[in-house]
Amino acid sequence: MAKLTKSTHRKVDSEIVGDIYDKMMHIPEEMNWVDKGFKTPAYNQKDCGSCYAFSIAHAIQAQIFKQTDKLIPLSEQQIVDCSLSYGNYGCAGGSLRNTLRYLEKIGGLMTYNDYPYASKQQKCHFDKHRTIINITTWAVLPARDERALEIAVANIGPIAASINASPHTSSYISKYRTTKNLVYTHMDI
Q1: What is the pTM of this model?
Q2: For the Peptidase C1A papain C-terminal domain, which residue ranges apply (predicted)?
Q3: What is the pLDDT of residues 146-174, one digit of tens each?
Q4: Residue among 103, 49, 48 nearest 79 (CA)
Q5: For residue 4, what is the DSSP state?
Q6: CA gap 88, 95 in Å, rounded
Q7: Contact 110, 128 (CB under 8 A)
């Protein structure tokens, strides 16, 4: 769940995962958020293991889009630089949960324009007065539950997800995405 911090402090989304199971009887056969207008450019994280930051920033960007119909790029670099004390490791990786805990506690996420991506860890330059969105609540889907994922994507929108990309799961992943070299043992989408 996210809350816009600019002017009116409108709630971006009031749904939480637990409520969805009680309310949903039917989900669409197909859901394509690009068709709904949520289309962001492809990004290159370069040699910085910041997939966790991109995953969370883009999931939050989707919530802003749902509320405003505007694509406002958010700062992955803020997450890389400033969430170390919450258990992330800058360009050496991080977790979605640690990132959400950081954003909930710190008071918000800045825009990409205010804190652009540098593909390297730097000193934290967070400015609470320049945040555009604040995380007020978030939830974790049950592990290995494809139905929960379908329901969340249909009702909440694009979400952040972690996939264990170890050699044991590479054959499962290859069914969905073909890759020649699987370098990381954990990836976020």
Answers
A1: 0.76
A2: 27-189
A3: 888 888 888 888 989 887 766 665 555 45
A4: 103
A5: E
A6: 6
A7: no
